[in-house]
Amino acid sequence: MTRKQKEQLSNRLVMNFGILLAAGLILLYVNSALRSGIRISNPTYLIILILGIISLALGVYVFVLGKIKKPKLTNYSAIFFGTFISCAVLYVSKFGWIPGFDKMTAVIPVYILMAVYFIVLSIVTAIQLRKPLVKSESEKIQHKKKKK
To answer: Most exposed among 30, 38, 40, 73, judged by the fewest C-beta atoms under 10 Å?
Structure first.
């Protein structure tokens, strides 16, 4: 693994942490909107439904586009799929199908899923970063020039 690859892995971890932090702050507002009266919670559920559908469509589009043309885009599809899963979990709370899972407690599983995702990503990144450092071809050429 080269220095550049290690830096990219570290940057990916930092970027995911930033995205999850922003999502956590947004969920605080969603939680207060869901806990408020019917006048606000019904439009909130509609927005969650629309956002979930858009996220699923964008996730599939970015994933397929990444597989066909740009492989780096495939990594970003996880953001959209995560948003879809969060919206689905929040929207299911509207119906009350699961005992003890209502609009008052709907945000808690989403926070738990976010934490599990980040912990697993951190462990995977730490394992990948432990690989030995290998010099790239340009670094090898520069090193040979310095020896001469």
So the answer is: 38
